[in-house]
Amino acid sequence: MVEIREVKTRSELKTFVDFPNKMYRKVPQYVPVLISDDMTNLDKVKSPAYEFCDMRFFLAYRDGKVVGRVGGIINHASNEKWEQQRIRLTRLDFIDDIEVSSALIKTIEDWGREQGLKEIVGPVGFCDQDKEGMLIEGFDEPGMFITYYNFPYYLEHMEKLGYAKDVDWLESRLYTKLKEEEKMAKLCEFIKRRYKLKVINIRNKKHLKPYIKKLFDMVDREYSKLYGSVPFTPRLIDHYLGQFLMLVDCRFVKFIENEQGEVIAFGLAVANLNKPVQRWNGRLFPFGWADFLWTSQHAKILDLYLIAVDSDHRNSGASALLIWEMLRVAREAGIDVAETGPNLENNQEIRSLWNWFEGEKNIRRRRSWIKQL
C-alpha cells in the first residue's frame, strides 16, 4: 500500500530534495541537484516564489521507505498573465510502479480540482529559470545540474495516467572549433562595423554588477512570450543573482552594446560542473567547494545557460556574434564543446542560432505534459 504524506518540516523537505540523489545514485548520466540551492528554492521563508505561488510537496511511502515525490505549484502570476487555470507538477520522481506514480500525481490533481483549476501541466517550476521538462529522449547523455534526469519508464507512466504533450524542449551540442573559422571571424568583424556593435568582455564580478539589471530587464522582455514565463520580482532577481554569481565565470559572460551604449544582447555560460557535483552528490559544502572551483578552471564542456538578443536586432547578426565570442573564449580556455540548455521546440529565434555552428542537434528532448482536470 502507498501512503502519501505532505512535507511539513525542514527534515522532511531535505528528504524530499535528496530523494532523486539516492534514487539515481548508480546512474552515470544523472547529475545531482545542489541540495543547498533546492532547499532555498522551496523554503517558505527564503524562496521569493511564495510571493506569487502556492506550493505543496509530498512524499510517497511504502513499508516505511520513500518510493517517490511530487510537488504542486499554483502560479497565480502565470495564470493571470496567460489567462489560464492551471496547476503545475514539479519535482516528480517515482519508482517503476504505477500505483506509486498514480497516487503522487492524483494528489496534485485533487488539490487543483479543490482550487477550481481546469488543467494540470508539468513538470515545470515556479518560473522559466526553475527546472522544467521531463526527459523523454537522450537518456544516455549526461545533462546539466539545472535540468531534470529521469528514467525512460516515466514516459509510459504519464501516458497511462492520461497525459498528453503540451510542449517540448530540445538541447544541442556545439563544437567550439569551426571548419570555416576564418570566414566566421571576418563575418563577425563585418557585423560589428556594419551595425556599430561593441562586445563587452566582463573582467570580474565588480565589472559585471552594473550590467545585472540590464540582463534581467532583457530576460523579462525577450523571454516574456515563452511557455509559462512570469515577470521577475525584485526578490526573484536577488535570489537568482546570488545563485548565478556563485557559479559564474566572467570569461564566459558577454554583452553586446549598440552605438548608443545600450545592451542589445547578452550570453551567460559556465564551465560544465557535472563531475564535482556527482562526486559530492550535490553537497558542495564544506569539502566539495575546492573541487568545484578547480573543475571550473579545467572543464572541457561549456554549459550555455542564458542567451538573449533584443528583438529589434535579431536580423543584424548580433546573435551569431554573441555565440562566436563565447565559443572563441571557450576554445582558448581549452574547452572543446558547448551544450545548450533547454530551448522550446517552437522557439526558432533561439534554435536558429545553432545553425551558424557545427555540432549535434537535439541530443536531449524534454516534455511538459498536460491533462484536463
Could you give a quick summary of the protein structure above?
Helix 1 (10-23) crosses helix 2 (35-42) and helix 6 (181-195) packs across helix 11 (318-332). The protein has two domains: 3-168, Gcn5-related N-acetyltransferase (GNAT) (Aminopeptidase), CATH 3.40.630.30; 173-365, Aminopeptidase, CATH 3.40.630.
Descriptive report:
The protein has 373 residues and is an alpha+beta fold. The chain has two domains: 3-168, Aminopeptidase (3-Layer(aba) Sandwich); 173-365, Aminopeptidase, CATH 3.40.630. 36% of the residues lie in helices and 27% in strands. The chain has twelve helices and 14 strands. Strands 1, 2, 3, 4, 5, 6, 7, 8, 9, 10, 11, 12, 13 and 14 form a 14-stranded mixed β-sheet that branches. Helix 4 links the parallel strand 4 (86-94) and strand 5. Helix 1 crosses helix 2 and helix 6 (181-195) packs across helix 11 (318-332). The model has no long low-confidence stretch (mean pLDDT 88).
Low-confidence residue ranges: none
Classify the fold: give the CATH topology of the largest domain. Aminopeptidase
Name of the CATH superfamily of the largest domain: Gcn5-related N-acetyltransferase (GNAT)
What is the helix content?
Answer: 25-40%
Radius of gyration: 21 Å
- The sequence of SSEs as H and E is EHHEEHEHEEHEHEHHEEHHEHEEHE
Major β-sheet annotation: 14 strands, mixed
- Total domain modules: 2
CATH architecture title of the largest domain: 3-Layer(aba) Sandwich
What's the N-to-C terminus distance?
Answer: 25 Å
- Classification by helices and strands: alpha+beta
Count the beta strands.
14
